[in-house]
Amino acid sequence: MKYNKEQRLLIGREIYTHEITISQAAEKYGINRYTARDYMREYRDINNLEPMSDGKEELIILKEKKISKYEDLKDMTKEQLIDEVIKARVGEERAKKGYIVKGGGQEKEFIISEDASSK
User: Fold this and answer.
1) pTM to 2 decimals?
2) What is the distance between the terminal CA atoms of the chain, rounded to a whole angstrom?
3) What residues pair up with 100 in beta bridges, in sequence order?
4) Which of 7, 35, 57, 79 has the fewest CB atoms within 10 Å, counting from its CB?
5) Dihedrals φ, ψ of 101, to 5°?
6) How far apart are CA 92 and CA 7, in angstroms?
7) pLDDT tens digits for 16-61?
8) Cα–Cα distance between 118 and 95 in angstroms, integer?
9) DSSP per-residue string spanning 48-103
10) What are the distances in angstroms from CA 48 to CA 9, 36, 51, 117?
11) What gap in Å lies between CA 91 and CA 80, rounded to an integer?
12) Rounded distance, CA 17 to CA 81, Å?
C-alpha cells in the first residue's frame, strides 16, 4: 500500500473538508480517483461524520469528468464537433441494439453486451 493509515486519513480530510477535489487529490498524490474517494470515506467513517453531499461522491467524479470533456470540446472545430456527435449517436444506437464495436477497419470486432438490449 502506498500510504499508511495516517496519511490516508490526512488525504481523506482534505477531500472531505473541500480543500481539494477528488481529482485534485488523485493527481497530487498519484492515486486513482476511486482510491482518493475511498480515503475520504475512510476518514468520514472513522470520525463518524455525515456522508459528503448526501452520499453522492460518485457524482463529483462524474461531474469532474464531464467538465474536462467540455473543456476539450471548446478547442474543437465545427467538423470535429460534428464527428463527436455522430460517434456518440452511433454508440447510443449500438447500445440499444445490444453490442459494442472494438477496433476499426478490417480489425473491427462486434461484442455482444451482457444485457442484450437496453429497451
Assistant:
1) 0.46
2) 43
3) 111
4) 79
5) -115, 130
6) 42
7) 888 888 888 999 999 999 999 999 999 989 988 887 654 455 556 5
8) 7
9) TPPPGGGG-HHHHHHHHHHHHHHHHHHT--HHHHHHHHHHHHHHHHHHHHTEEEES
10) 13, 18, 9, 42
11) 17
12) 37
Place of cell 455522430: 86
- Report the amino acid identity of residue 14: E
* Tens-digit pLDDT profile for residues 53-99: 544 555 565 555 555 566 667 777 888 888 888 887 877 776 666 66
In angstroms, the CA 37 to CA 21 distance is: 9
CA dihedral 38, 40, 41, 47 (to 10 degrees): 150
As given in the structure block, the three cell numbers for residue 19 are 480543500
